[in-house]
Amino acid sequence: MKISLPNNSKMNSKEFTFGVATASFQIEGGVNDRLPCIWDTFCATDGKIIDQSNGDTACDHFNKWHQDVDLIESLGVDAYRLSISWPRVIKLDGSLNKAGVDFYTKLLDELKARNIKTFVTLYHWDLPQHLENKGGWLNRDTAYAFEQYVDLITKALGNRVDSYATLNEPFCSAYLGYEAGIHAPGIKGKEFGKKAAHHLLLAHGLAMQVLAKNSPNTQNGIVLNFTPAYAKTDSQADIIAAQKADDYFNQWYIKPIMDGAYPDLLNELAPENHPDIHEGDFDIISTPLDFLGINYYTRAVYEADKSELFKEVPPKDVAITDIGWEIYPKGFSNLLVSLNETYSLPPIYITENGAAMADKLIDNEVNDIDRISYYQSHLDAVNDAIEQGVNIQGYFAWSLMDNFEWAEGYTKRFGIVYVDYQSQVRTIKASGFAYKNFINQRS
Ligand code: FCB
User: Fold this and answer.
1) In angstroms, rounded to a whole number, what is the distance separating the alpha carbons of residues 104 and 352?
2) Could you give the CA distance from residue 425 to residue 369 in angstroms, rounded to a whole number?
3) Which domains does the chain have, with CATH numbers?
4) Burial (0-12, 13-18, 19+ Cβ within 10 Å), 33
5) Rounded to two decimals, what is the model's pTM?
6) Ligand 1 centre and the CA of 155: distance in Å?
7) Ligand 1 center to residue 47 CA distance, Å?
8) Residue of minimum CA distance from atom 4 in ligand 1
């Protein structure tokens, strides 16, 4: 089974960047060579991770990184998106940890030597635990600690990087981590989510200003995830509920960056659930971006509710992936077109898209045609959006390889490469070969 796009598609040109993505905590392991982070603590707490696993070894990329660079090169991708582990490169006193920095400089040098562009995310959820002990993202000081870390690490990495993203998916850090409590640090309560979100957005803006100074020649931006909100019925009440969910989960993170304000829904939140906004914050948060990274996996459906702003309706009788997310490529093209209509956007990179499937390794092969068809339909959706005038410059598959899927532990596989966690042997899946063949036939 093949991946292909129409001959005249802009995505068939080498100008369009194709890559694979990972994140530090999900693949590195090497736990003894860094400070503890909030995910270590969360994993050690009973009942938080479905298979009671942790990131101590993960894909052992900390030791196998050289082999993994070979693997990335063998796929023929233009770019690799990785994240820097803050607790690996910073010491308790806030100064740089040279050994940790060396790990990344060697890795980035090797990628450069193979002509692979480096897209570096500065924060993919692994907050140093000692900062969580002082309140984590509920403490405004964490934004300034992030600014300092970004200053030090970007100076140390020099010209090894092509693109910096400040944060990955602040929605997940804020909402899942400090409101729903299903991600680290596991704090629950409506009064916390928007406060954490504000400090994350402030951290992003402060980091953008540091990047403008330290790294003016890289493409600097942020990665946001979107789960477009659809109304269950066309009743006015359901439509309004879906709009509110969209503001709460999606627009909440993009509007302050693009327009310097939160959605009007702010006025409907109880005062104790409001963020703590200081004068001048929005000027920092709305520092112009060189690019916007967009992650898309699925949509969500909402209906009106008597006591809440909206109520999510779980997917029923629709195609879903192994993690239970509806397969809905139309939501992807609609999202891209609607963001483009709503905001004055910088160039877009699709920084994550992919699917968890119930892979089986049989005779050293994984015949994941379900994942290939997910990629095909979602690449078609990106192509549709480009045809409708959206300026999209690149696409990254999530993920290079199976890895630690947060609260789902190692039970969900998102890789285009299969990882046997016992032997640490990597096996390219059928989807990996299809992606490789597609990328390599471009002119
Ligand atoms: C995104 C995360 C990424 C991965 C995928 C499946 O929300 O950024 O780390 O877990 O989901």
Assistant:
1) 21
2) 21
3) 10-440 (3.20.20.80)
4) middle
5) 0.99
6) 28
7) 20
8) 405
